[in-house]
Amino acid sequence: MVWAILLSGCKDSNIKRKRSSERPAAVVRFAALPETIRSPKDNPLTPEKVELGKLLFYDPILSGNKDVACATCHHPNTGYAEFLDISMGANAHGLGSKRRFNVPNDIPFVKRNAQTIINTAFNGMDVYNNYTPKKASMFWDDRIQSLEKQALEPIKALEEMRGRGHSVEGILEVVVERLKEIPEYQRMFTLAFGENEAISKENLGKAIAAFERSLVTNNSRFDRYMRGDKEAILISEQEGFELFKKVGCANCHNGPMFSDYKPHVLGVPENRKLQVPDAGIGDSFAFRTPTLRNLRFTAPYMHNGSLKSLQRVLEFYEDIANGKERNPHVPKEKFDPFVRELKLSVKEMSLIISFLNTLNDDSFDKVIPQSVPSGLPVGGNID
Fold first, then answer.
1. pLDDT per residue over 224-235, tens digit each?
2. N or C terminus of the chain: which is more exposed, having fewer CB within 10 Å?
């Protein structure tokens, strides 16, 4: 009998070791966002660069058919995101929920929800406030690192800014040649980069990245609370914070940005506007953890905008924690191990949502340029 008990104990120990090897324990730590930002050594932040990047961000000259700007889907009126599940880029008109495709149209929807540009300066930050701007994680599928590289990707994408008529290999050169023909951009690139022939696709990415890096909200009520102002958040919100950690949300949403920047398989419901299921990173149906900051401005939620409210998001997590499958392509056996550790009940949701609201901060740049050097409509065809 003693031998059997010992064997049983060894078996249990092996099971625990196996589970541990499947999913390393999360390091859970929270802090306020830093009050300063870092830039890559080859792209220091300067007022001239930020000013140039801002005009480029609003100028549809960057799109294939001169109808879409970065600001079209990342507008300050909607927190540099947009109130749409998935975006309509090229060959469309209107802003946010009023945006519609032109007729006729053969451009598909952008298959993923437009994430906010705010605080992307801190992308990739770990729980100890460490991050490297040149290695910063970008996009839902983490396919690009750094804001400098990210800034150029939408220009090359058919459904975002390129549209019909230009190749993915040639569109950046087309845009660069357009910019060279505009005296104001010639002057501003020279001033920002200190070069006579400063207009290039590399400097285009650097200028837009500089502007995006300037969009920081690091003074939310939560930030003030973490810096020592214990009255910055209500007692009920503090209770929500403790529940957020207790039920398991903090396994993936931690650190100053409330993201581990790692991929997780959740089985989010498909967006019916898409004809082909979005299989995520490496066809695994995994997507990178988004930040939870400024959620007030970023509904609807998840990688495809399929969940309309924070209440729906928490209900979804309760479902999958209980083994319910919400996506026919993702059986529960493929759910991320962290999901199985969630212990979420309906009665706790309102307190958690009240806590999440302490992460909102609307002190970002909302000033829209009166005009852009190309003379095209500011922000693209959004009126």
1. 999 999 999 999
2. N
